[in-house]
Amino acid sequence: MILDKLENADWYFGCVPGFQQFMKFFNDNDLEELPACKIKLDGQDLIVNICDQTAKDEKDCKLEAHKDYIDIQIPLTTSETMLWSSLEDCQNVIKEYDEGKDVELYGDKPAARFSVPRGYFAVFFPTDAHAAGIASSTFRKIIVKAKVE
What we know:
Layout lengths: L1 E4 L13 H10 L8 E4 L5 E8 L9 E3 L3 E7 L4 E7 L6 E6 L4 E4 L5 E5 L3 E5 L3 E7 L4 E9 L2
């Protein structure tokens, strides 16, 4: 997992596939002004989801993990709380892996809880179980899906 400021994104271009291409798109567009949508920057290998999300309560969140994609999550309008655990520590599978949706859900307690402020990003690799969307009100965020190489 990575948590850092967007201004430091270039430090991670070598270890996060598609991140450099996404950051060019991010810097060339006002993603707060675009409508909520899904944009394929590189076919199925790099997908940008611009989302208007209803805030979730932490008790309603389940850890999830992906095998085929890395998640890059960027809150645009407000801070967002996220949860994390190492996937190897997750033992309580509550929804088996769905290959079509690339997701498996866990009922385990998270090892960490942290805030991702506006202007920051979080990267979750296939070794990370995570939950997001915990906020005090509706908000806009970006979820980038980068295909694992």
